[in-house]
Amino acid sequence: METETEYVLHSMPAINKGECVVVPKRHVENLRELSANELTSLIRTVQQVSVVLHSNLLPMGFTYGSDEGEYTGERDTHFKFHIIPRFMNDEQGNFFGKEKKMTEKQIQSMVTEIRSFFEK
Q1: 20: in domain
Q2: Is the model's pTM score more than 0.70?
Q3: Residue 14's domain spans which residues?
Q4: pLDDT at residue 93 is higher than 60
Q5: Using one digit for the tens of pLDDT, what is the confidence trace for 95-110?
Q6: Which of 28, 36, 37 is nearest to 76 (CA)?
Q7: Considering the domain boundaries, does residue 1 fall inside one?
Q8: What is the Cα–Cα distance from 118 to 27, expressed in whole angstroms?
Q9: Are 8 and 21 in contact (CB under 8 A)?
């Protein structure tokens, strides 16, 4: 999925099925660097993506958030906002949880399925 100001990407490796990140097209390192319009657009996109994921995956809830800085484990300097569907028996006590080990075939299958949700 793509908007005028963001990309929506599958988070890889993923914590849970359907995990996505909303990434501003303009390079910013953190939330504070987004303009008011970019921030509004980003949150609207997060809402749209979570509606689609909720109606297709029926999670028990969602974790929303972002890491900033090396200390948090952030691996790159481009801001992104995570949308993580939460299911029974996942790492619910952990804010972001543990990444699942998946084969290339499992990843492709999941990505294809999740993309189909946005084509409806």
Answers
A1: yes
A2: yes
A3: 6-118
A4: no
A5: 555 666 778 888 888 8
A6: 28
A7: no
A8: 25
A9: yes
